[in-house]
Amino acid sequence: MAKILVVDDEQSIRKTLREILEFEKYDVDEASDGLECLVKLKKAKYDVVIMDIKMPKMDGMEALERVQLLVPDTPVVMISGHANIDTAVDAVKKGAFDFIQKPPDLNRMLITIRNAMDKSTLITETKVLKRKVSKSKTQEIIGESAGIKRIKKTVDTVAPTEARVLITGDNGTGKELVARWLHEKSARAGSSIVEVNCAAIPSELIESELFGHEKGSFTSAHKQRIGKFEQANGGTIFLDEIGDMSLSAQAKVLRALQENRITRVGGDKEIRVDVRVLAATNKDLRKEIEAGRFREDLYHRLAVIIIHVPPLNERADDIPLLVNHFIKVICEENGHSVKEITKEALTALKNVNWTGNIRELRNVVERLLILSEAKITEEDVFNHVVPATNV
Q1: Mean of pLDDT over the chain
Q2: What CATH topology corresponds to 138-310?
Q3: Same fold, 138-310 and 313-388
Q4: For the stretch 167-188, what's the b/e string if a residue is b when 16 or more beta carbons lie within 10 angstroms of its beta carbon?
């Protein structure tokens, strides 16, 4: 049975709404002002909150803002007999699902509640699906080399903390995988990890991507946008290739880390966010600082813990494990039986110069699976891999 919290300082209004909603088979609870509403929301989960605007102690507008921080996915329907269109617009801007004028039209009230519950259900289902997708993308860290053992130990030690981590290493070494494991082994694993590729976003759009923007804040801002920091609230944000971020965006990220607050582009309201920040780069940030392209204060904020992922050429003994792992994964993805690879072929692969690291190795394994016959042989490696690489 869906549970609804009715918040109004007038007992007669609460009683009327309770009778109507209980007749419609809803479980109804009451609060007489904004403070009591917040107390009840801390103790129980409600599917919808119906809240008056004019109330003593704490009015509905202030309570709405606090509800957004406390239970951001719970839809709030505002009601008032003294409000005008500006108040209604302001309520919706602050996160209300809808606004209904007193005395409320019964049919509209019930339709609004059903729509709010549908939205709440969709949000919950989306979060569950995102978690499933996130876990499916979190592959095992494969390898027994000294460097990989050191990374696994560091991840196990650091993940349960709230420490920020800077992951360094060449392109294709698996920095994203390390970030995902830090998230999966943390207390935030039940929430999302939101990834941002700073190198793939134009410098003029990076601030909007990270912090969101208000409608009309620039030419193409046709509607309000929620940024990545807000999307990651309660979870983890992974700033990949942070060395490519503009200095102006770096300043805002630094402020977000210092104050746990962000401001959307074109807005003046500060929004509190609770995120753990992981960052990665293939650049030497010390050299970037010397060149004036990266803020030293941001570097020290991010680099509480530094994890360096070694290139594949420095962990050649892991190549047989990685190759057999990729063979199994690729064959399962395509519904094929696992193809055998000879020891000679594995030895030949260990001798390849892997400039593209793990990413290149996976592509090569897929190529060999497609082009080889019954099994992958040393001849297949020399025919289809070695000519395309520098040995």
Answers
A1: 88
A2: Rossmann fold (3.40.50)
A3: no
A4: bbbbebbbbbbbbbbbbbbbeb
As a whole number of angstroms, the distance between CA 334 and CA 328 comes to 10
Q: What's 313-388's CATH class? A: mainly alpha
Helix (H, G, I), strand (E, B) or coil at 190: coil
Find residue 80's DSSP bridge partners. 101
pLDDT at 369: 95
Q: What is the mean pLDDT of residues 144-162?
A: 96
Cβ partners under 8 Å of residue 145, min gap 6: 310, 315, 317, 318
**Confidence (pTM):** 0.65
Q: Long-range contacts: 86-94, Cβ < 8 Å, 24+? A: 87/53, 90/61, 91/53, 91/60, 91/61, 91/64, 94/61, 94/64, 94/65, 94/68
With 70 as the cut, is the pLDDT of residue 389 above it?
no
What are 345-364's pLDDT values in tens digits? 999 999 999 999 999 999 99
- Domain-by-domain residue ranges, the chain? 3-126, 138-310, 313-388
Which tokens belong to 134?
A: 């996130």
Note the pLDDT of residue 193. 93
CB atoms closer than 10 angstroms to residue 300: 11
Q: What is the pLDDT of residue 391?
A: 42
Please, what CATH class does the domain formed by 3-126 belong to? alpha beta
319: helix, strand or coil: helix
